[in-house]
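re the bet — no i am not wrong, look at it urself. input seq straight from the record:
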Amino acid sequence: MLHPWELSGPPQTWGDQLAAYYRQQPVFAVIGGVGGGTWQPVHTFCETFEVPCIFPDVDYPDVTGTGYYPLYFSRGVTLEAGVLAKHLLKTRQSARNDTVVQVYRDNALGRVPVEVLRQALHRNKGAVVVDYPLAEGAQLSMETLAKLAGKDRPYVLVAWLDSADLKDLGFASGPPAALKDIYISASLSGMHRPDFPQGWLSKLNMVFPFDLPASREQRLLRMKAWLHARKIPLTDERTQANAFFAATVTGDAVSHLGDNFSRDYLIERIEQMTQSSLSPSIYPHLSLGPGQRFASKGGYVIRFPPGTDGTPSAISEWLIP
């Protein structure tokens, strides 16, 4: 039997809400879940109560490596930062010679990928990295961006911003000559091409830790048929595909438990079955080994060719940081 748990209010109150839910109904496992911000209170609950929390669809999982009971699809924006660092260092001389300007909202979550990319580039003697935090409501002008990069110095812009913030970047004029490329996050932008003026699209790239559209369409046929048979509309491909995978792989694992209803054994079974599961997800490669808690370990860098309908193409292979 499934028991929906809905959290409300600030994240500081989630721990008490989860504990109250659990006292009312001590569930065997928590399946899926959606969160646009921090997931730390849920992660802490899973560890404290030793409850398997299986494949939530989140962009900010706990990446400290201290958990046993939570299983995640990926490291979220932290993974994207690692993929981007590898791409820049592997394919572009500019990763060593140009300036990389990171623009982000000035809060704890906004700083997460910024720190990862900066450290990765510095560790590999990469580019000069300039961080530009945006206060709430603030916008970025092209004049400010040029000053940050240095007069006439070639630079790359990395925008760790959501779709609303990307829309307000102020790209009314043409791109500066010194700007070589723009990189944005697929997770934060909703996997969609932002509505940039045409002149900017030739410079736009997206860090994309998901399956590419052409192969994803084929991969998700089973899930779409299941939804259609039950007259459930497809409204959010990522969320619904990942929820379908989490529920299916958990159900398959439970069916193999027999009379051994052990939470640790459930996790062991999911570790073994994730890679071989026939259930689709939004990720092209999923696998877990003993002690591994992030099933998808890489991503692509994609580009949206100008003058198209927005269909992207990969400009990198599958990169694993």
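see?? The first strand starts at residue 30 and ends at 31. told u. also The two ends are 39 Å apart (CA to CA). so pay up
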